[in-house]
Amino acid sequence: MFSPRRVVVLGATGSIGESAAKVARALPDQMKIVGISGYNNLKRLAELAKEFKPSTVSTKDKSHAEQLLKELTSSSPAPLVVEGEEGLLRLATLPEAELIVIAIVGTAGLKPALAALRAGKNLAIASKEILVMAGQEVMTTARKYERQVLPIDSEHNALFQCLEGRDPTTVRRLILTCSGGPFRNIEASELAHVTPSMALRHPTWSMGSKITIDSATLFNKGLEMIEAHHLFGFPMEKIDVVIHPESIIHSMVEFIDGSLLAHMSQNDMMLPIQSAITYPRRVPGPCNPLNLPEIGALHFEKPRHDLFPALQLAREAGTQGGTMPAILNAANEKAVELFLEEKISFTSIWNYVATVMQQLPSIPTPTLEEIIEADHAARNAVLQLYKRG
Ligand code: NDP
Ligand code: MG
């Protein structure tokens, strides 16, 4: 008899978290949510806690925890409410959990992810930032504790499916597909006038605001190149990007005999989440199959490297390795924050990241502490650039 996989969702109140909740609703015999975390959105966290009745709920801080407890006193059984970094670590190592979904935006999920692996849990990772920042540490820890790291990011989930059971020496290239974002056809002169509301309109995916801006600058795809490098162990020069505006093919693997395996599906994050939750099994789920005659045609283009330098910056950072990917990632995160606050222009995001990558030295084989220090230094360097104007 198969019992539902017992899952903790870190970042349950976000876009990926909500898709994970939909999967749990659709497949109750496959997935049972035993722990959830949120950050600012207390109201939604309380609603999810009432619906899924997890044993443990983690929130931002003490005052949020007190409010949440009040909200949940009438729930039976009332969950244990924990908070802050400690709360996330508690959830990541929850005794009854088998699989921890990391769907926190940015790098706050890194320590919980490592703690989960050490506690013998498998991971399903959406938070690409933690793999970019410390992919080597995460993958080495997973190997040491013989745990799985299952990708939720749609491109990596696609690659995972295409690579399964293949001999890695027969792989010539991994090809990540990229929608091109809202500015695929923009004129160079218009880029400087892009506002947050323009950049937040993604043509094919509905996601949280940070990743939507990353999709508009193409830093999302740059981060995904480094993410693929760590997850699958191929060098950066074997990882390419092709623009595919329909977002139907989620990525491809090219083999040495010239074969190209592609993974295609509806562009709905429920599918990669379901596939990670039920791995290695496949079960019927809530996503409809593709109707190819209705789609009609698929298109492919080369990325416009001259206008969108993010891919090249990410390739440089990934090739250099050491702390450079953490520097790129943190500088981008801080620059996106400033752009969303309308403090810097769209094109400044690339300029700030490029400048900080030149300013800060990369440490070749860093410890986790050195990676975290590099992350802080890069955020600070972006702030200094902004203050200087
Ligand atoms: P959202 O912004 O929608 O959600 C982020 C989640 O993280 C929320 O639950 C939020 O809580 C929580 N959170 C934010 N800051 C912190 C913090 N400092 N500590 C703890 N929790 C925090 O993001 P998405 O769901 O879009 O993205 C999540 C991750 O998944 C990102 O790394 C993204 O790159 C990746 N991803 C997302 C895809 C998508 O389709 N959305 C696709 C592929 C990858 P609250 O809302 O309560 O404040
Ligand atoms: Mg993706």
Structure commentary:
The structure is a single chain. The N and C termini lie far apart (63 Å). The strands form 2 sheets. This protein has a 7-stranded parallel β-sheet, sandwiched between helices. Strands 9-8-10-11 form a 4-stranded mixed β-sheet, covered by helices on one side. It has 389 residues and is an alpha/beta fold. It is globular. The mean pLDDT is 96. The chain contains 16 helices and 11 strands. It has helices at 15-26, 42-52, 62-72, 84-92, 110-118, 128-144, 154-163, 196-199, 209-217, 219-232, 270-278, 292-295, 310-320, 324-340, 346-359, 368-388; strands spanning 5-10, 31-37, 56-59, 80-83, 99-102, 122-125, 149-151, 171-178, 239-243, 249-255, 260-264. Helix 1 (15-26) packs across helix 11. The chain folds into 2 domains: 5-151, Rossmann fold, CATH 3.40.50; 156-267 and 294-388, Rna Polymerase Sigma Factor, Chain: A. The site of NADPH dihydro-nicotinamide-adenine-dinucleotide phosphate has 25 residues, from helix 1 and helix 6. Residues 153-155, 224 line the site of magnesium ion.
Domain module tally: 2
Overall geometry comes to: globular
Strand content: 5-15%
Which regions are unreliable across 5 or more consecutive residues at pLDDT < 50?
none
What strand order characterises the main sheet? 4-3-2-1-5-6-7
The assigned CATH architecture of the largest domain is: Orthogonal Bundle
Distance between the termini: 63 Å
What structural class results from the helix and strand content? alpha/beta
Spell out the helices and strands N to C: EHEHEHEHEHEHEHEHHHEEEHHHHHH
Bound molecules: NADPH dihydro-nicotinamide-adenine-dinucleotide phosphate, magnesium ion
Largest sheet: 7 strands, parallel
The CATH class label of the largest domain is: Mainly Alpha
How many helical stretches?
A: 16
